[in-house]
User: Fold this.
Amino acid sequence: MHSTYEELCSHARETAILSSVQAVLEWDERTKLPAAGGEYRAEQVTQLAGLIHEKQTSSQVGEWLEMLATSPLAADPHSETGAVIGHLRRDYEKKTKLPQSLVEELAHTAVMGQRLWAEARKEDDFSRFQPLLEKTLDLKRQEAAAVGFTDSVYDPLLDDYEPGAKTADVAQVLSELRNALVPLVEEIKGSDRKPNMKILTGDYPVALQEDFGKQVAEAMGFGFQAGRLDVSDHPFCTTLGPHDVCLATRYHEETLVGGLFSTIHEAGHGIYEQGLPAEKFGLPTGEAVSLGIHESQSRMWENLVGRSRAFWEQFYPVAQATFPAGFGDVSLDDFYFAINNVQPSLIRTESDEITYNLHILIRFELEIDLLEATLAVSDLPEAWNEKYRTYLGIEPPDDRDGVLQDVHWSAGLFGYFPTYSLGNLYAAQFFEKACQELGDLNDLFRKGQFEPLREWLRSNIHQHGQKYTPSELAQKITGKPLSHTALIRHLRGKFGALYNLPETT
Amino acid sequence: MHSTYEELCSHARETAILSSVQAVLEWDERTKLPAAGGEYRAEQVTQLAGLIHEKQTSSQVGEWLEMLATSPLAADPHSETGAVIGHLRRDYEKKTKLPQSLVEELAHTAVMGQRLWAEARKEDDFSRFQPLLEKTLDLKRQEAAAVGFTDSVYDPLLDDYEPGAKTADVAQVLSELRNALVPLVEEIKGSDRKPNMKILTGDYPVALQEDFGKQVAEAMGFGFQAGRLDVSDHPFCTTLGPHDVCLATRYHEETLVGGLFSTIHEAGHGIYEQGLPAEKFGLPTGEAVSLGIHESQSRMWENLVGRSRAFWEQFYPVAQATFPAGFGDVSLDDFYFAINNVQPSLIRTESDEITYNLHILIRFELEIDLLEATLAVSDLPEAWNEKYRTYLGIEPPDDRDGVLQDVHWSAGLFGYFPTYSLGNLYAAQFFEKACQELGDLNDLFRKGQFEPLREWLRSNIHQHGQKYTPSELAQKITGKPLSHTALIRHLRGKFGALYNLPETT
Assistant:
């Protein structure tokens, strides 16, 4: 049995090598590739994808898994071998259940979809995108049917990003979050305190921003001997090998904060990747748990650390010295309030720590309705606008900045959106626990000490790879299932003080 | 037959896709990879190399080639199909003649060799490297025997880099070159004119050097929409796809010229790569002819263009404006003389346009003697020093800057060195012809017009891919076989004027 297990692992590692090569190609495409190089790069990616798919669906893997199914090695799902076998079986079954023709049509439709979406968005014409979205939904329903489900057609799709999560549970916790957030946003709107946003705009040379961002990422604990930071239109983090974690951010000459918070966010992802056990790279126990848990790391560093006053007590003097023209005469309190401005707005990616979750909720609720066919695609724009009115009190003037603003649905990414808010919820619940165990983290941040938090995350989350599902991890670490309460406590505490809101009980 | 040919081509293109992915991994390793990422990168490269080797030596390829051998498609070796079939057959036969065990031992010895060489060089201890070099020579003799040869054991090795070239012919032309160069170097040594080299040293900010280098490369005709320029310890040019040609150079704060001439040299390679027919990428007719012809392009741009007075009539004012602290008060004539200083020296890579060829000749003559076993490895250091005394009138004080200075032999690269000087010879012969056909190129350079030369190279050399061997190309373009006369004419003319040498007839 042990030799079968070794063969299975070595096959998984070989597959991971090819996937990591694919990641190199994609990283290069997003950061360095000359404009004319895109077409051939697509050929390189396609050929490699074929080789990877071949390895992933090889019947040999099925035979090994079959032999190991009843082995003692598979008995404990939280053991090293049990977690590896369990996850590889789950991936193999999902992959082999899908007919090749469906896989190809999904891939093709995603490419076409993104192109059509970009055109439709540019021309603010939802009707151009509508037929493709209908087709995509039809294919995703076929995908869900092929994989199989009992409760919701959304379950197998969500499971791709958040293994083990159920639609009903996620809907429950997110609706409680919504019920708490909508009135909080109303209260903030009613406050007469408003930050002065003009202080964030000035002249911030890109080279200095990059130096400052690297300094912050390094202080957080991102290791540049095994990582890098580059520039891309859309910030991201990708792993090209166990000691090669790549961050990308974007800079704007006229403001520091956009680029900096992207760097902090991506460095949060990167610290997770660097904290996974390197010797298990390519095996499930060397990989991140889920998108939601990944996002909990980036959001924790971005919002709970990077937007805290304590963090800036350490870094604001450095920022003032680095950008004297920008911050020389701005007080820390004014700066802190400005980077925590809450303001209902149209665009998800530009929204604040509170309203961001309402943007997600709108998408989550609508994509379930679309997949379950209780909402027709033709009615989607109006349903979108209606939810923006209800949850955020604003109304998109057009579809470009409304229902057409995100690429996800055009690329077939259904089940992806909720992981952003799950990340916020996990982040708050983990952070609260870390504060209980480590003492007041803000005291440490004020002194520039981020290592205790990073080590706590490493030992509680990173080192386990995929040994626990997201919900098992929440239970194991915090002793409670995931809920909205920690996040709401954090938001009420922080923004209550900033906006001088009446205390609630 | 046509469908067999199509299958052969499509297999070659697929192999080329994997090789180009390999090139991406290597480019990234040399320019961007974090320090700790090297070990896993080696695993990625090794796995991909295995896949490439499998494809290259697949018996299916042998069957297709067998079927096509007597086809009319193969009849004319200079036709598209004939050139493709001929080159693929040649590559396949070379690859399949070598026993797998020998290939692996060569690869392993090359890795070990480079490591041992670096240690031996650091400690200036040839004896540490000697056993490995003896083993490498033994393996290279086995390689030559497996491939087969009639005249010299050096023939099949040279053929890897300079297809179709024969040792005897190359030895003939290079010895004539040597006989003309040795006295020319003596004459220059005797001249009382010497450039003031101090004017090349100053303060040259790297960011400005990069801008200036890009401006020069662009003026030469290197296209940045399908290419890039990065930084590396060792300058190089590599192609990651038909529209993705990567240059790398290195900068020194204290001088412009080292980095700049590297950029010009590599851009010369890059212009060749960008001039190959993109639609034939992956087929022999879309690939460069040989190392010698490749080097003829880089050397032509570096020396015949970049070190000409006409070139600097265009660019020196730009350099003066960009680096006022460096060149503000230096005359063009003083600058031109300094970048053309001739001075016998120990290190090949730092040598000038004339003595460079003597460094190459020494290595070429010694490596033939080593392979033919007329020189024992134990006698190599003394033989090396003796040749430096005879050809250059100087003597290495140690092996570190003598016989241990180059990595090539440690990596098993025998037959590679002469291609550098062949490049210089081809460059001069082609350039002379271009001047006959296009009129005085210097007049064009003075006005910053480099396109006529680039287009001439494209239509005479680049567009043909591998349709002609190097020697066929020389005959076709210049009507003459390769000889030393054009290069000597160029060197005598240029350096005769600079050093005020008596005219010879």
Strands of chain B lie at 227-231, 236-241, 244-249.
